[in-house]
Every structure is written in C-alpha cells, then in structure tokens.
Design a protein that fits this description.
single chain, about 280 residues, alpha/beta, Rossmann fold, Pantoate--beta-alanine Ligase, Chain: A,domain 2, 2 domains, six-stranded parallel beta sheet, four-stranded antiparallel beta sheet, 11 helices, binds adenosine monophosphate
C-alpha cells in the first residue's frame, strides 16, 4: 500500500489512474470491521481503492471528544494493507488547513435536526473536509457507512449542490455479535460501559417493534427513556424519520421509508446508531 501525507504527491500518483475507477473511503482512523467493509465494497467495484485517515478538527464541536478520539495509526496501516487497500492518504492539519478556511456550509433543515441539533457546526466541518478530500482524490465513487446515516444524507446533498461528479454508496452498519454498532469510540468504553452501551441497539430494536405495532413516537420515547435510565445511559435523542430526507415523523407511515435514529452518552462517550424499519 502506498502512503501519502501531502497533496501534490498523491495527485501526481493518481494521474496514472485517470481512466480507471477510483473508490474513496474517508475515515478518521481507529479502524474496525465497519471501515474494512467499506474498503471491501470499494475494492469489488473499482480499479483502485484510496482510504483516508484524518481526524478533522473542524467537525468536532467538543474539544474533549477531539482530544480523546482514539488514534491507532500503526495498526490502521496494517489493517488497510491486509484488506488490500491500494493507497492511504493521511494528511496533517497543516496540510488540510494550510490556508485557514473561512468557508462554512449550511444544509438547511438537514443539519438542524438529530446530530446537527446537538453538535453545532459538525456538519459544516464534515462538508468542508469531504469537499477537500473529493477535490484531492477525485474519486469515481465514495463509500460511507449507514451507521452515520445523517452524514450520508448530508454528503448526498453536498454532491448534488456542488455538482461533484461522484457516485455515493451507503454500506450497511457492521455490528458486534450482540448488536452494538462498531465504532472507533467503542475503544473508549470500559467493559462495564461497553455492557451499558448495548442499550442503544436494544432500544432501537424494541422501539422498532412498538412503532410497527402502531405506537406513536411520543410514547416510544417515554419507554426508551426508562430503558436508558435503567442502564444509567443519558439518552440524547430517539427519532423516527423519513429515510429519503430525514423529515421527522410521529408514527410509521411506510416502514420501507422509515429510519429510527438514536444517540446517547455512556459516561462521557457519545454514541449513535440507527436502523431501517424494513
Ligand atoms: P469514521 O472513521 O467514524 O469517521 O467512519 C468512517 C466511515 O466508516 C464513515 O462513512 C462511517 O459511517 C463508516 N462506519 C463507521 N462505523 C461503521 C460500522 N459499524 N459499519 C459500517 N460503516 C461504518
């Protein structure tokens, strides 16, 4: 696997793949099977696969979260090369923000709800860094996880608004055996916190059944709050939304068109998850 830390050399290297398909998998590192599933999908569909590892400061609304974000670069490099990734771009802050950026993004309603409501400026930072990565790598197709479903919707919107000539794919969430969504932040959980964290997935599956049985979100939320209280996990939100545009819903109209999203704090570790209703 070729590793690049600067923009010019990776651009020069990618010149030879101008007429080939390039798959891009942007990550913040601390890689797990979820990330590797994106690499695998990209490898199947493209001539070459480029992974990026960059912990982007402008998308962190909480400085402690940024400071404590797990960084496991040596292990990540081994995992990526074992997975057959062709190129890794892992720039420094000096490279990605050589010119201090004044650009901000406003995604309208899409970034005022769910994650956007609780993480001010987060999606503006995501929009900025993903645009930069798209410009540097110029991929044919980019791969994102369903685990960050709102992020996928934001990036779809970004691609349409800025007319990037890039296809997008949303890859299903990879879970631990007991259902916990794989996440780099899981590395911050002690064994005891790890057990409590399962309440996110358990609540999603429980709530899904209640909603499919016709219960309204207000009542489902009450029941979820109780589950969270039992596990001493702080519920931030549980919301039902339209899969296409994330407009929030009070009850299920069409299960095929619905997604249930959740977020909570296990101690100071913030976790998110979501499931489709069908
Ligand atoms: P991150 O490093 O957390 O920014 O994630 C990089 C990419 O991997 C994003 O597109 C995530 O949605 C995706 N991802 C993270 N966790 C998972 C998972 N458990 N299953 C599938 N994709 C994931």
């Amino acid at each position: 696997m070729e590793i690049f830390r600067e923009v010019k050399p990776i651009r020069a290297f990618l010149e030879q793949f101008k007429n080939k398909s390039i798959g891009l998998v942007p990550t913040m590192g601390a890689l797990h099977q979820g990330h590797l599933e994106l690499i695998k999908t990209s490898k199947k569909e493209n001539n070459i696969t480029v992974a990026t590892i960059y912990v982007n400061p402008t998308q962190f609304n909480n400085p402690i979260d940024l400071e404590k974000y797990p960084r496991t670069m040596d292990r990540d490099i081994l995992l990526l090369s074992d997975a057959g990734c062709d190129l890794l771009f892992c720039p420094s802050n000096e490279v990605m923000y050589a010119l201090k950026s004044s650009l901000t993004f406003d995604f309208g309603q899409l970034d005022k709800i769910l994650e956007g409501k609780f993480r001010a400026g987060h999606f503006s930072g995501v929009g900025l860094i993903v645009s930069k990565l798209f410009n540097v790598i110029q991929p044919t197709k980019a791969y994102f996880g369903q685990k960050d479903y709102q992020q996928f919707q934001i990036i779809s919107n970004l691609v349409q608004q800025l007319m990037f000539n890039i296809a997008l794919e949303c890859v299903a969430t990879v879970r631990e055996k007991d259902g916990l969504a794989m996440s780099s932040r899981n590395l911050r959980l002690t064994q005891e916190m790890r057990a409590r964290a399962l309440v996110l997935y358990q609540s999603l599956t429980f709530a899904k059944q209640l909603l499919l049985d016709g219960m309204e979100m207000a009542m489902v939320r009450e029941k979820t709050i109780k589950l969270f209280e039992q596990k001493e996990v702080k519920l931030e939100y549980i919301e039902l939304a339209d899969r296409k545009n994330l407009i929030l819903l009070n009850f299920v109209v069409d299960p095929k068109e619905s997604v249930l999203l959740i977020s909570g704090y296990v101690g100071e570790v913030r976790l998110i998850d979501n499931i489709f209703l069908a």
